[in-house]
Amino acid sequence: xxxxxxxxxxxxxxxxxxxxxxxxxxxxxxxxxxxxxxxxxxxxxxxxxxxxxxxxxxxxxxxxxxxxxxxxxxxxxxxxxxxxxxxxxxxxxxxxxxxxxxxxxxxxxxxxxxxxxxxxxxxxxxxxxxxxxxxxxxxxxxxxxxxxxxxxxxxxxxxxxxxxxxxxxxxxxxxxxxxxxxxxxxxxxxxxxxxxxxxxxxxxxxxxxxxxxxxxxxxxxxxxxxxxxxxxxxxxxxxxxxxxxxxxxxxxxxxxxxxxxxxxxxxxxxxxxxxxxxxxxxxxxxxxxxxxxxxxxxxxxxxxxxxxxxxxxxxxxxxxxxxxxxxxxxxxxxxxxxxxxxxxxxxxxxxxxxxxxxxxxxxxxxxxxxxxxxxxxxxxxxxxxxxxxxxxxxxxxxxxxxxxxxxxxxxxxxxxxxxxxxxxxxxxxxxxxxxxxxxxxxxxxxxxxxxxxxxxxxxxxxxxxxxxxxxxxxxxxxxxxxxxxxxxxxxxxxxxxxxxxxxxxxxxxxxxxxxxxxxxxxxxxxxxxxxxxxxxxxxxxxxxxxxxxxxxxxxxxxxxx
Amino acid sequence: xxxxxxxxxxxxxxxxxxxxxxxxxxxxxxxxxxxxxxxxxxxxxxxxxxxxxxxxxxxxxxxxxxxxxxxxxxxxxxxxxxxxxxxxxxxxxxxxxxxxxxxxxxxxxxxxxxxxxxxxxxxxxxxxxxxxxxxxxxxxxxxxxxxxxxxxxxxxxxxxxxxxxxxxxxxxxxxxxxxxxxxxxxxxxxxxxxxxxxxxxxxxxxxxxxxxxxxxxxxxxxxxxxxxxxxxxxxxxxxxxxxxxxxxxxxxxxxxxxxxxxxxxxxxxxxxxxxxxxxxxxxxxxxxxxxxxxxxxxxxxxxxxxxxxxxxx
Lengths: 561, 313
Description:
The complex is a heterodimer of chains A (561) and B (313).
Chain A: E1 13-24, E2 34-42, E3 46-50, H1 57-65, E4 73-82, E5 85-86, H2 92-98, E6 103-106, H3 110-113, H4 120-131, H5 136-149, H6 155-159, H7 168-180, E7 186-190, H8 198-215, E8 218-223, H9 226-232, E9 235-240, E10 243-249, H10 250-255, H11 260-267, E11 285-296, E12 308-319, E13 323-327, H12 334-342, E14 349-354, E15 357-358, H13 364-367, E16 374-377, H14 391-401, H15 406-419, H16 436-448, E17 454-458, H17 466-483, E18 486-491, H18 494-500, E19 503-508, E20 511-517, H19 518-523, H20 528-536, E21 542-543, E22 548-549
Parallel strand pairs in A: 3-8, 3-9, 6-7, 7-8, 13-18, 13-19, 16-17, 17-18
Antiparallel strand pairs in A: 1-2, 1-4, 4-5, 9-10, 11-12, 11-14, 14-15, 19-20, 21-22
Helix pairs in contact in A: 4-5, 4-7, 5-7, 7-8, 8-20, 14-15, 14-16, 15-16, 16-17
Chain B: H1 2-28, H2 34-39, H3 45-55, H4 61-73, H5 87-122, H6 127-141, H7 144-158, H8 174-208, H9 211-218, H10 223-234, H11 236-252, H12 255-261, H13 266-275, H14 279-307
Helix pairs in contact in B: 1-14, 5-6, 5-8, 5-11, 5-14, 6-8, 7-8, 7-12, 8-10, 8-11, 8-12, 9-10, 11-14, 12-13, 13-14
């Protein structure tokens, strides 16, 4: 794999951070949130800040922008030098002058980062109105010009659109246009592609690189995704618990990491090459989905509206002890299929057989006894457990509903805690007392408590840090082996799919475009869409866990060049 | 948008119809003979018969309803039992003062309360916030008539800036109108300032934590622009709702203030009618109040889409 290897030592230093210390406001004695941070970025350089959630990446960027939430965090020492200007003791007015003009920022979630009630053109133009003396028509001209530069289509029309009328990628282009319209020296990008689909992510990464090339901007890029780092970084700083533990040029870091923490982080990155297939024991099919169909809308009293075909003609089976993954981008219909199978929504056509019973047409009452056969684990462990219930109550509710005695359910709950590697006394605690990974373990225990035949995991590891992700995936496999559960694994992440699935179904716009054994689909994709997904996966030629290039990488032979 | 307004207007028909039926039954289902109630204790049987005849009380109930309903549609709500004048013109005479004072009250409330709420949210947990919230509690808890008398004592009796009581319509001269309307409006406004300021503060606190506010600051936008252009418009929907409800309540609930300041508005008309059992007037007042509520709600719903482009009907 090609890494960036340009030397920046003769370039002008744009940002210099020295011994930066950030702590809780008014409590200098408490454990600092950032400690002894040193950072240098030169013109044209891309410096990646990586680390797990809570390591202090975003706090570093907000401190540099002078945007720390005043009543929570404050700079308690050190300096942040932007081309000779000291940011830590600038007045609010000086900071305001600096922002957008010399230092700009783009954020993770382009939906919420744009003001929903203002036209996007106005939001870009506002930067010009605040910082320049351009006339109204000049400002508009400049706005349309930067919108052209970020390759937005039909700029006149997009200018007067509201954020909700644009796609995620277009919104992020607006954010980039807004950040770069005044040609700042430093651009801070805080997880700018994390909320986007892989193919959109690729385009946005290219765009940032292109704009950087054109304007010679220094970029501080914050991400948790090692694949993205491998694609774009010149230099990488690894953060852990508020400190920078390792800093190195990209190739050095990926081939020869010095710190244990860096090694651990890289080893947790799932490999894009599919794992060796598991032996296929002759087990009976637990789930059979036949020509499943779901159309949303399409009703209407007076006019028959079109409706959205969210899932069309989906057919697959999963045997006991096997894992089938549905992969696809947002809007592909993968979650719709999962919800139809769970009967959280009602399919409009086709059959779903779980443990021998056709359930797609059952009424709510008829369905009730079959519910225990199928259980689901959701994406967001922060919201899928009732915050006012103890863990024990969440774990026991299901079994008690199905006639287990209270004592028996409690005994079982205690066993489950052991199974998912949590202490027994965790039963009496509430969800907010656990970390994200621990909560997801509880959610898995809750699902397994019902002794289901089928476990549906809907993006169950997507919200977790890579190291935690690896542990939760391991737990899922362990549970599957022990109880012989069939698993339906919904994910947008091809790396995860490659490591856990036996079979893969690729969906696009509600239709299955390709399906088969994971090894075959992911290393020798037939359909152009599958190929484009694999090609868009960042860092796909690198085997992070083994610090070397990927041998037999999923090449895209015959791809549309 | 036009289609939506039409649909909403059509939807008001069943609401007003139900109110009309209720209003009709109010008189008919009152225990005892309505004619006897209307005629009073000293009536002779001949007088009772005349009243029954005049009200059509000898007809079956549904005929009575259609007759009454037909008259209502023509704008005839009968005559007052007390003054023997046309009810519609009686109410119309009184509506002007009430609406003028209500509008002035709402304007004062919004002008004071919205900036107060915005600043309280901006300076969350500082003395400014504390001051606004304290005022808000005070505005809720002190009775309207107490505030009214205190204001009269200070501004009318001690300072002699304005007259103690009375009302002048704007057509009598703007100065005369304002000098008489300002105290009742301020009195009424205290509770609405409290209410709207609280709602503005709560709504703004939520919005100020949003990502796009951070984006605006990251763009180097001035703080007042962040607050009023970026945040307030997003916080508008709950504030508009409370303003709308407040306005409707104002029109139907101004009895005390009108009594304290001796204003010939519909609040006092209603009280007088209830005390005198003047049923036709009471009926007219209920119809009017229902109509105002429906209309104000419609206006509020339409105004949402003006502030938030994601709301489209």
